[in-house]
Amino acid sequence: MSSPALVRQPEDSMPATALAEAGPSPAAITRPSTPPSFATLGLRWYRLNRAGLRAAAIGVISLLAFLLVWHLLTTYRVVFFVRFTNVPSPLAVYDSFVKAIHDPKFLMHILLSCRRIFIGFSLAAIVGVPLGLIMGRFKLVHEVIFPVAEVLRPIPAIAWVPMAIMLWPTNEQSIVFITFLGSFFPILVNTLHGMSLVDPVLVRAAQCLGARERSIFREVYFPASLPHIFTGLTVGMGVAWVSLIAAEMISGQYGIGYFTWEAYSLVQYADIALGMIAIGVLGLGSSLLIRGAGQLVMPWRST
Amino acid sequence: MVRHLPTLSIAMSSLALLATQPASAETVKLGIGTQDTTTNTVTAGVVIRQLQLLEKYLPKDGKYANIKFELEWQNFTSGPPVTNAMMANKLQIGMMGDYPLIVNGFTFESNPESKSRLVGIAAYSLSGSGNGLVVHKDSPYYDLADLKGKLVSVPFGSAAHGMVLKAMQDRGYASDFFQLVSQSPEVGSTNLQEKKIDGHADFVPFAELLPFRGFARKIFDGVETNLPTFHGIVVRTDFAEKYPEVVVAYFKALIAANQWLRADPKLAAEKIQEWTGINKEVVYIFLGPGGNMTTDPTIKPALIDAATTDVKVLQNLGRMKEFDPKKWVDDSYIRKAYAEMKLDYDAQLASTKNYEVSGEDSFCKKPIIDPRKAGEVWVDGASIMPFSSASCTLGAYADYKAKGKKINVAYVFDTTRGIKLFADQAFFAVGNGEVAPFLLKKDAEAYAAKFSGKVLGFDDAMKAAVGGGKT
Predict the structure, then answer these.
(1) What average pLDDT does the segment B110-115 reach?
(2) Span A90-301: which CATH code?
(3) Domain boundaries in chain A?
(4) Taking residues B347-357, what's their average pLDDT?
(5) Cβ pair B88:A162 closer than 8 A
(6) At what angle do helices B265-276 and B280-287 cross, to 10 degrees?
(7) Which of B112, B155, B181 has its CB closest to that of A85?
(8) A253 in contact with chain B, both atoms CB, cutoff 8 A
(9) Using N-to-C axis directions, what is the helix angle for A139-152 and A104-137, rounded to 10°?
(10) Is residue B274 scored above 50 in pLDDT?
(11) Which of B91, B96, B156, B182 to probe the A interface (max A CBs under 10 A)?
(12) Would the pTM count as exceeding 0.90?
């Protein structure tokens, strides 16, 4: 199970960078009574967190390697079928980044995008999960809704732009609607999938023990499909960020997707890359949050 | 059988290699980025493509005897994607409006493989017409000042954006006078239709197209900025230096396309509608006689001066560093094309004349003397009839209607600014035996005040013209 390791990564990444001088860890300092020495405590801590540290260290190294390769490819303007001649270098993107963080507008872009994603995603979860549960339990509902959902699901976010503008009274709602669509279908489909995998023996057992429909839902179906629901939420969150640029084409003013789009219309490659990376990092952060929430809700799975 | 296959395929492929190499028929890809829906670039793009004019003029002898050009036309709705594809060397020739052109030239400064050069003009308007700002037809806005504090969208980095900035500068508006946001034409048009925004400024053809489609009204035309606007053609220098004759051939095709347009503007408008989906009536208001755009490929100094002004606007916005448009222009190819077609480049360069409405007024029975006071009526399925004045145009319109003929559209000219208008969208100052059309209500009111006349809409003006304006 890779998810717990990933979740632990942020806490661990700090000590991991100081791995070379790993001995005096903060935990050791706070305990002054000294029977076991600092060294043994440090060693014990290291043993306990070895897997996490390893993953974090490898993660950092692979990111650094990515940056290095990017730097070399763009510095030497490598051309081997793929052409890096005009791709901005990491340093150019860093310059853009420094300029951007001194600009209060950039923070505004990020905050507004986060808010849009949060609202769109929350609505998708609130609608998608119960709908999936009901569709999984009642055949008629499934038969009615499933074909419609399957037709709407493959439509790309950008194709929704004109419709979204016409459907909703304000642009903010149109934008939220597109992020909602992005996350809704993965959540629905995964919830359905989770429901279909619930062991019928468990359901029958509950019924034999006199459980009513509500209890069966609460005690059997819901917990059994939770892992898939959380997979759906993680994927849904990812797709919500994917649809952000399409959604924020409507905005015309703020949002990290809009920032990227505007950079494109003024052909500023470093800013485009900055917007892409910002979306990536924000997407990663929000996925981590969901995985963390998953661990809280399903403690029985955290190993 | 199976065992023989590998040897067979090796033999076949080596045979194929032998067959192709000695002949050395080199294939060179030529990518051309067009903007089909941006009506003022059509003679540099879609017309050449559809009439296969470039194939006609491409060099075929000398060093080109063994080169086969593979033309790849790509259509975009705005300039920046063209620049992007040119940077990636997927396109070698591209066309776009003045602001995107400058961004193109500036972006190429940092490209180590190639620079870009402005080598010719697709169409221009010295007075800055073409760009415009429209509002919803039911809105109470008739002037830029009415939009104070309102939500106005414009595609940032476009020629229309430049027009808005210049207009704000001219009028001394602060930068937050409008809530200015960036929306592409597609998004802005839908938003305006749904009244989500109060105004939308855009480039050709949207300021005419949206009113024509019936939900918008133009309240500001680029002529009020009096800053020339143009669409031009840029080329990658690495391609142009390697195959200069091809660039020259392209310009011969462009000149031929312009001649085709002017030979029969009505047919051209119909064809262009077929190829691009932009209504022929809208195409005609830009490219027809006395239209708001002049198709002329020569690179006029006035346009380069305008580009220098545009650079300053972009610099003030922090979008650009040093860039000198004069060094970016290269007129050698277009000059060569003119010379080889036995045309006089310098004469054309000095001329800023468009072709004009001409002929005999069949309704008022007199020749057309002042083409910018004239008018035209497009009778459906028949021809476009010229008339000598606005009142004759309206009179003829009423006459055709009475005879049960279907009319596509009628054109008149703004009395003071000389730009071509859709008659049914114009404001008419009527009185004193005169019918004077205007784009703007305030202009019409000011004019009518001079002889205590009235400002009428199209239908009332037509009645007035039938009543007394005929003579």
Answers:
(1) 90
(2) 1.10.3720.10
(3) 38-83, 90-301
(4) 93
(5) no
(6) 130
(7) B112
(8) yes
(9) 140
(10) yes
(11) B182
(12) no
